[in-house]
Amino acid sequence: MPSLVRSNSIILPDLDFTLRRQFNKTGFRPFQREIIQAALDGHDVVRDDERTADSGYCITIVVSPLLSLMMNQVEALRAAGIDASSFNSNTPLQERDQILADLKSGHPRTRLLYVTPELCATDRFRDRLQIVYDQRELARIAIDEAHCISEWGHDFRKDFKRLSWFRESFPEVPIMCLTATANDQVRNDVLHTLCLDTEPDRLKSFTMTAYRPNIHFEIRYTRDEDDRRLEDFLKWIRSVYERRSQEPRRTELAALGERPDNVPGIIYTISRDECENIAAQLRQEGIGAQPFHAKLSKEVKEQTLAKWVSNEPGFDVIVATTAFGMGIDKDNVRFVVHWRLPKSFEGYYQEAGRAGRDGNASYCFLYYSREDRDRVCNLIIRDRDSKSSNWQARASSLKTLAEYCENVTTCRHKLICDYFGESDTPACDYACDYHKDQAELQRRFLRGLASEEWVSTQREEGLLDANWDE
Ligand SMILES: [Zn+2]
């Protein structure tokens, strides 16, 4: 079979070369190569059908739910010399006109166009895309964060449901769905909604295991009446700094140009105020911590992120609300701490999974209290009446997460893999609190938490009504 060569394109047969040249990376992440190859194979089929594009023009539409993520990716692609654009409510009028004109030509110069699901529902966009399709220039549709399509996904978005339009209007154009975390229920729902389950032989599926052996998972029990999160965290981080300051580690780190206190990490919390408070308290204690949340200016956010990514002193720890971290390319995150219980199991796992992408040992711990469990539950119940809410799915995910936290008789890695539908039990090498010391875990569980009686009394008095904003 002749190989597919397009000059001036991101698609070249030598994937390793392309990776090095365009993205300055030396190796693929697991499955990246196979997925790209499968997409390229789809192209070859398309070419055999004489839907060829000898001109070298061919556009991929990427549907993405998050504006900030979209901007980051377009910037990164442009920096790598790829003609990428985004089209959403923030796009300046002039640029919008340019993109629409580019599509209307039928032979767009743009290689990758990032759009929101809301935009995909507009007639103007649909008409233009039809022109591109008629000219046989529509290469593929990629749908990012595809779990948002499913009502069983934790961040369900209504307009995602209407994306079945792609398959109905452009039956031969391959569709790629990308998501970090989806259990079977979510996955089937996504395929069904997009009408991809009607032709199973066209479907190629790549599932990464949820098992991350280099991450140590731990739950730390606490209660409102005896909240020692701050001192506990300080004690832990100082012990890490201490170990790194001792010989021979100190000399090793110096040779690598690393400071002993350069231990990059993320602390997730649930409100903006708490985000600011924790960062300020940590700074007072000499830890290089910075807040990150939606209310900060774009400049401050960009600067904080850039300095954290480049390991600058004073920017070792990011204290963030939940949206932080999507699409961020930083391999050496050594810890992720959940200051409060996240709202869903998927959210917890996604955030924790930002640690240790370089494969080195990393630490994830979550401060769990039953009071927080009921606070988060109240937030979900409060949304129950809003029309688009999938509150049952959210409540069920939260319940599983709380049970995970209160489980002291099973490996954390196993519980995570079970949740994502994997039947094989991973071999855990002391990489969770259960395997590290079962007796100690049970002792901490019994001593740390408030009793259910106490918590329900508090709840009845309305003391657990949270007023958290992200
Ligand atoms: Zn374990």
Describe this protein's structure:
Residues 229-402 form the Helicase C-terminal domain. It catalyses: ATP + H2O = ADP + phosphate + H(+); Couples ATP hydrolysis with the unwinding of duplex DNA by translocating in the 3'-5' direction. It holds the Pfam family Helicase_C. This is ATP-dependent DNA helicase. It comes from Xylaria flabelliformis. This protein is of the alpha/beta class and 470 residues long. It has 2 domains: 15-206, Rossmann fold (3-Layer(aba) Sandwich); 215-461, P-loop containing nucleotide triphosphate hydrolases (Rossmann fold, 3-Layer(aba) Sandwich), CATH 3.40.50.300. 43% of the residues lie in helices and 11% in strands. The protein contains 19 helices and 11 strands. It has helices at 15-23, 32-48, 67-79, 93-104, 117-120, 123-134, 164-169, 184-193, 229-245, 249-256, 272-284, 298-309, 345-352, 370-382, 391-406, 412-419, 433-436, 438-448, 452-460; strands at 59-63, 84-87, 112-115, 138-143, 175-177, 215-221, 265-268, 289-292, 317-320, 335-338, 362-368. The chain has a 6-stranded parallel beta sheet. Strands 2-3-1-4-5 form a 5-stranded parallel beta sheet, sandwiched between helices. Strand 4, helix 7 (164-169) and strand 5 (175-177) form a beta-alpha-beta unit. Helix 14 (370-382) runs antiparallel to helix 15 (391-406). The longest helix is centred in the N-terminal third of the chain and has 17 residues, at 32-48. The radius of gyration is 24 Å and the shape is globular. The N and C termini lie far apart (52 Å). Residues 1-13 and 43-56 have low confidence and may be disordered. Zinc ion binds next to helix 16 and helix 17.
